[in-house]
Amino acid sequence: MATIEDVAKRAGVSAMTVSRVLNNSGYIGAKTREKVERAIEELGYVPNALARSLRFKTTHTLALVLTDITNSYFTTVARGVEDMANARDFTVMFCNTDESPDKEMKYLSVLAQKQVDGVLLVPAFSSPDPILFLKARGIPVVVLDRRIPVIEVDTVRTDSVRGAYQLTRHLLDLGHRRIAILTGPVEISTSTDRVAGYRRALSEAGLSEADAVVMGGAYTISSGYQLAQRALALKPTPTALFAGNNFIAIGALRALRDAGVRVPEEMSVVSFDDLPSTTVVDPFLTVVSQPAYAIGEQATSRLFDVLAGRTPTTSLDLVLPAEMIVRQSSGAPRREDPDTG
Amino acid sequence: MATIEDVAKRAGVSAMTVSRVLNNSGYIGAKTREKVERAIEELGYVPNALARSLRFKTTHTLALVLTDITNSYFTTVARGVEDMANARDFTVMFCNTDESPDKEMKYLSVLAQKQVDGVLLVPAFSSPDPILFLKARGIPVVVLDRRIPVIEVDTVRTDSVRGAYQLTRHLLDLGHRRIAILTGPVEISTSTDRVAGYRRALSEAGLSEADAVVMGGAYTISSGYQLAQRALALKPTPTALFAGNNFIAIGALRALRDAGVRVPEEMSVVSFDDLPSTTVVDPFLTVVSQPAYAIGEQATSRLFDVLAGRTPTTSLDLVLPAEMIVRQSSGAPRREDPDTG
DNA sequence: CCTGAATATGTTAACCATAACCTAACACCG
DNA sequence: CGGTGTTAGGTTATGGTTAACATATTCAGG
User: Domain A58-158+291-321 - what CATH class?
Assistant: First the structure.
């Protein structure tokens, strides 16, 4: 790779003159400019961004640290981040933590070393440590998707409470009274928020604490499968299942298929998170759809505000609304005596 | 962010001594080491990778340039790349080109500036220019998914010819004789290869050139929808559709649904690319499944070989086999006089 | 013809980390 | 006790770019 010095030699000028041509700064004679431009062309020179970054203390690079890019929800978030970053001539590094706090910290350390200008973080865990680590090193962070309790940090997320409330309310309106919620890890805010919305809807409908059926597992297909199996074994059996995310929904639907339980005739199913429209011919699942792309965009936009020094005194907690989409997987419960399993 | 000089001052030693502690090189007294380690701890110091990279001419960073991370196939490729890179302590920058050669070149220029150690490229177009650009700057490239004609470059891809042959053969074995292939842009090697495999199967089955129904569009859902509509309007109407990728398959299935054509009773459908198992409850589509994760892994592994100087004289063209999975979307054609539409 | 502003280009130092080289103290040997 | 090797640490220069400063040329106006 040619350096600015190589270009300078070839053009018969000093490196500084080449720099001026490159950055259009200061005075440059017309002939000199031409000579320099020719030399740049001939050598295929591109400036070394490392050297620039070392001087200017900015790398024009962001990092997106998430749990698993393979989850279509995060894929879309990532796309929103990348588009917004690209529009400002930033590039994005991406890192999968697989929900491992260890992997997360390792990545954050590497990212700090690589001097990224900012980090977009989907925390693996509800610990303030990763945030503190970044703040201690002056690296701006925006947390996506999940809340981090205790600590002050910019956050962009979906209104899980309201989304869960809406879905539960929808089921209640259809006549369901025994609704099981199959949710992710209890330590993660999305889980607790969705359970909170679910409980709120139940209590508003006059149901008691005892009517709530909360089953916690992980945000995975296999967990969804197992939770649904356990829900089917309950007496009285729930008439509706509320899946805490798309993976749990897929797992639950498979469990129902394997158990020969028809949806929605024998069991209604609703889910937080839609399935990607690019992989489904005929959307069937009643869902609350998260504004994944917008979350990526908004979080990145906030990060740029912080980078530009446009930082209001208070930290942001941007809560975007989810959209409920009623489809065929939810219907009225079967007409039976509601008190017999 | 603290620098090595800050640490040195705090520990009362020179920067070089700190460097020796960090890299475990040279002699260090036990007390000195302790003092330095304490200072590092207290300041939360992490070494500046930019400065190191500037000296060592390696950034431990790769770039993955692809068309759209939102396509589940590429998401999985990306995951394969990231896992392999992470195992060697490399980070990955990702870039969506949206099949635009312009965007692609802009990204490559930025990546060259940022001194990435290597590029994994899913080319937007069958032009050698991007490869030449990188090679001129001494940046190793591995091309994924698609062939680039004319030029010598390492490539890792699926055996499109054979995969398409298998799918076509499968339809022929079921008794289909009028099979339409709905494919992507004719300039992209995956399209031409899949059409080639399709044609080979037809001709082996004793069908003539005139029996081939090749319809080219784009690798998008809307293109799949339109192509299927046009296929339905043909006389004689095909009895089977071969979708060139997953998006085309989804579009085609939607067109069939909207036209009230049942699959597989009235129309068999097969597809190159599977749909992600994480979004489908009950896989239905007969497909050839690409080893997406392995493609990402293998390509990255090859890149590391090149970086390590383990470069055989000849360039690699690694062609991984696709796996045919027969499901319910393909069946025997309806028993009619095969010569009347 | 001289002065000062405008134009054009070069030199030095800094960003941060470290390889290569250099200095100094000490232990051990004959 | 001088010589030599080991241990422990510092100094300088380098990597590529550019801000700040310095120098040199040109030109207009008095």
Answer: alpha beta
How far apart CA A294 and CA A142 sit, in angstroms, is 14
| CA distance linking residue B81 with residue B97, whole number of Å | 17
- B46 at the A interface (CB within 8 A)? yes
- What are the pLDDT tens digits along chain A (341 aa)? 899 999 999 999 999 999 999 999 889 999 999 999 999 999 999 999 999 999 999 999 999 999 999 999 999 999 999 999 999 999 999 999 999 999 999 999 999 999 999 999 999 988 999 999 999 999 999 999 999 988 999 999 999 999 999 999 999 999 999 999 999 999 899 999 999 999 999 999 999 999 999 999 999 999 999 999 999 999 999 999 999 999 999 999 999 999 999 999 999 999 999 999 999 999 999 999 999 999 999 999 999 999 998 877 789 999 999 999 999 999 999 875 444 44
Neighbours of B250 (CB within 10 A): 24
Residues from chain A contacting residue B133 (CB–CB below 8 Å): 44
Asked if B5 is an interface residue toward chain A (Cβ–Cβ < 8 A), one would say no
Same fold, A4-47 and A160-290: no
For strand D, list residues 31-70 of chain B whose Cβ lies within 7 Å of it.
Answer: 31-33, 51, 54-55, 57
> Which CATH code for domain B59-158+291-320?
3.40.50.2300
Strand D closer than 7 A to residue B114 Cβ: no
Domain boundaries, chain A: 4-47, 58-158+291-321, 160-290
**CATH of the domain spanning B4-47:** 1.10.260.40
Residue at A308: amino acid letter: A
Q: Domain B160-290 belongs to what topology?
A: Rossmann fold (3.40.50)
Please tell me whether any atom of strand C lies within 7 Å of the Cβ of B334.
no
Distance, in Å, from the CA atom of A267 to the CA atom of A247, rounded to the nearest integer, reads 18
Residues A220, B76: Cα–Cα separation, whole Å: 17
- Strand C within 7 A of A28 CB: yes
Residues 50-69 of B with CB under 8 A from A: 50-51, 53-54, 59, 61, 68-69
pTM: 0.93
